[in-house]
Request: fold
Amino acid sequence: MRTRYITILSALAVFLMFGCKESIRYGGKKMSIKKEAFGKTADDKNVDLYTLTNANGLKAEIMTYGGIVTSLQVPDRDSNLADIVLGYDTLNEYIKASPYFGAIVGRYGNRIAKGRFTLNGVEYTLATNNGENHLHGGIKGFDKVVWNAEPMQDDNSVSLKLTYRSRDGEEGYPGNLSCTITYTLTNNNELKISYEAETDKTTVINLTHHSYFNLAGHDSGDILGHELMLNADHFTPVDEGLIPTGEIKPVKDTPMDFTKPMPIGSRIAEVKGGYDHNYVLNKPDDSLTLAASVYEPKTGRVMEIFTTEPGIQFYSGNFLDGSNKGKGAPVPASPVQAPQVQAVYNKHNGFCLETQHFPDSPNKPNFPSVVLKPGEKYTHLTVHKFSVR
Ligand code: GLA
Reply:
């Protein structure tokens, strides 16, 4: 009886795994996009989870709530896959409390001082959600809305196109803003994130992506041994509230210097609170250039980040404090699932590299402009390239 029960459940599991999967073959290579229901929000919106798999077996799971990358499986130097992004198993955990794990951040990534700025002589007041400041788009930012999704494919990649229309006045921002974000997993082992937006009133915009990476695996402790290179000779110093002072300072001869690869932990004790700074990338224009490279010595995994943006926020997971119990929550007694060990994310157990315009730019006339006018198109491309050494 019990064996029969297990057989039926296994058959059901196999059907659920492959029943709604679309496989695409091009030149002998096999990629796929799978869609499954992932739950509902409190206001009854359906949330779907898409699994993109490239021809080499790399896998990205992305849900329509917040455009969140819930899992990213990449190989180590022995070809073993591991999930290298922090996160949860279920939609409810993301809704309950998430420090922006894997999310699309907008309309403005990072902080705007006191939630205020002036555009064309009009002062705008935004939601404040980080002490007296506005952080990552406000109380209900782009990380907490449900995006429309459309899977796409071409000869060398699988993609998920996400769209969202942020209405005039949302979180205090002017203008209806139509956003399109496309995640593309290529057969060159790249995860590309392409952002586009248009407005019907002059506004400010700074979209980014907030995955917490641990290249040894999301549940493998601190990231202090990862070797980081940042292609930046300068950074923007901040005050106590993490608002840029407006200066652009050289990193040379300071613990901020990652122009040559250095373990993240090598000088972190000299940086009050840990790294949470915007680096000014060495680049003459908005072409796609190398911003960062990270190497994890135990597994050999390498992640390079290329971007069209002028800055990158390096955040060393300083606010993670173990209260975020992550993936691997025990599943109620199940005959087909072995007991799991739940990940606990402590301080410095993940790092973020958020490609962006500089924090508080709306109030800093010397920083590159974040103003978007009607008739213009906001574009931003970031490529995460995975390899081994
Ligand atoms: C960004 C900020 C940090 C913190 C995290 C989220 O990286 O710069 O200060 O707010 O997001 O916890």
